[in-house]
Specification:
This protein is α/β, with parallel strands linked by helices. The chain contains 9 helices and 12 strands.
Length: about 290
Amino acid sequence: MNASESGPEPIPVTRDVDHGTAKLLPDVDRRRAWLLTVDGAPQSYVDLDEPAHLEFEYARRLGHVLDCVAGSGAPLDVLHLGGGALTLPRYVAVTRPGSRQDVVEADRGLLALVAEHLPVPADAGVTVHGADARGWLEAAPDDSADVLVADVFGGSRVPAHLTTRAYAREADRVLRPGGIYAANLADGAPFTFLRSQVATFAAVFPHVALVAEPSVLRGRRFGNAVLLASRAELDVAEIARRTARDAFPARVEHGRALRRFTGDAHPVDDGNAAPSPEPPGGSFSVG
């Protein structure tokens, strides 16, 4: 049965996709909500009845950023690198009707699974492409996106070719003046990867910020952090106000505090790039 239809109790769906084993797990507390995992790692959460509901904390933080980009409800041109179950494209479609969105996902099997069981409405303005994220970015037109959201994980690691200064330059080229790059990353102390990513994007963009829970930034646990970069000044005060009201409040690091966090980290280039670290002890795994 299509997961979007009413009727009998939904049952989990398991399928081998291009990059692992995907599962769609119904949420017993929300009638048409689903968790997508790949090889046990949570990838997306979607509520078909309430597309504006963002279950994951990092997704909520990205939602706050999207809410702050332009006037409330104004349509945006958004490029999403990494698709999953299309949580954020669905969010933008209902909060900013008329937006044009391209979603780039390398796992075509995963795209087919989502299209079959969690279809996006045909009039949502969302176009999905089965392609490598960096290859697509390099071919994208100049000044074509208001926001570029990067949420690309191979399993539970960000691929190395999406961490470099050349990649950041491509993001800068594709974004319009005042556009925002927003990436979901994951790391833990001593933050070798996260610090290098801040240094990499600060070498390309004049304004950079980092959004994460204080416990993550203090090195107490491995977790997600949202990296923001722009040629225009970021509205860090408003983003901080919004993230502070979440169930798990986050802090926005920028300016001098972020430079202290970055320390002596150097930008990453294609010749020395590495993927993000493997989460310790299956930090994000689902049984």
